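[09:14] KT: can someone run the structure on this one? pasting the chain below
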Amino acid sequence: MDSADAEIAGLLAAGRYDRAFDRIVPAFRDRVFRLSLTLLKDRAAAEDAAQESLVKVWKALPCFDGRAALGTWIYAITRNTCLMELRKRRPTVSLDDPYSPEAQVVATSIATGPAADPEHDNLLRLVETLPANQQQAVRLFYLEDRSYDAVAEQLGLPLGTVKNLLFRARKRLMQLAQLPEEEAA
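[09:31] RB: done, structure tokens below
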């Protein structure tokens, strides 16, 4: 636990929710937004979801019992907020149909869009083809540099399951990128 988390935990333990929230917002705002954007893939919707998530955190602060790390708790609230938003969007047009207008727009933007780092952009596109649970594990472990234990806690999964998800994701990404396993390691 870093010093900011320790300070916030102390404020929460003392029942000083206003002051704790004043510390939470700057410490977690960017992470909440990035997670929302990752899940919703729409900037405006992600901004709304991030704001809604922080409001939910504010309302739930008196219920925070410290069983999970504060960041994990906030992550779970954000993830659930985004999942509810995704459920509201149903039904949607599947991008699996290569002839749908939406799939054409995506294909065109991938083929013609300028990329600051083409390899990174290509890798992110490959990650997006993975099943949702593997995507989440990869983003947390590799892109947010979380430990296996932190990923397991944040996803609410056993450690072995997280390691299995990451193993399968790496294997699938190597297949998609057509790299021999020795090069990818």
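[09:33] KT: thanks! Residues 25 and 48 are 15 Å apart (CA to CA).
[09:34] RB: yep, looked fine to me
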